[in-house]
Amino acid sequence: MAPRAHEITIGALARRTGLAHSAIRYYEDEGLVHPERTAAGQRRFLRSDIRRLSFVMIAQKLGFPLARIRTLLEALPDRRTPNARDWGRISTEIRGELDARIAELTALRDKLDGCIGCGCLSLGKCALYNPDDTAATKGTGPRYLMGDKPPAR
């Protein structure tokens, strides 16, 4: 049976998104798309699922985990094509998260050439920035890269 005009097969969805059939089935299992089934059990996707799965791919490239992507997609209408307002809400929400991540990465990048508070004390600088491994009093790991402030010099 041929799909109706607003429906596409998994093969058509794979061609449009560049995803393997197995990836599309995985995203279905994860609740990111919800195809209907024909009487013969074949999946039928909405054309709007092209956009949904494209968003999944972009969000994953931006480092968002599937659980977060699922939460974002739950705000979209399931059986109608998301409109510009729908996508605008999502982009506004993730923009703040991306801005925070960019700020965090920028600060991390800017601190990489100095002491990171790891406690190695193997560099000449460590004796200046982390004398006697004072960063250890703040906990384990690279304390200054994790947000702790080194003591004022």
UniProtKB/TrEMBL annotation:
Entry annotated with the keyword Transcription regulation: yes
InterPro entries in the record: DNA-bd_dom_put_sf (IPR009061), MerR-type_HTH_dom (IPR000551), MerR_fam (IPR047057), Redox-sen_tscrpt-act_SoxR (IPR010211), Tscrpt_reg_MerR_DNA-bd (IPR015358)
Pfam entry (one): MerR
Alphabetical keyword list? 2Fe-2S, DNA-binding, Iron, Iron-sulfur, Metal-binding, Transcription, Transcription regulation
**Which SMART domains does the protein's record reference?**
HTH_MERR
User: Where in the numbering of this chain does the HTH merR-type domain appear?
Assistant: 7-75
NCBIfam families (alphabetical): SoxR
- Show the PANTHER family listed in the entry: REDOX-CYCLING DRUG-SENSING TRANSCRIPTIONAL ACTIVATOR SOXR, REDOX-SENSITIVE TRANSCRIPTIONAL ACTIVATOR SOXR
Record protein name field: MerR family transcriptional regulator
Organism of origin: Sinisalibacter aestuarii
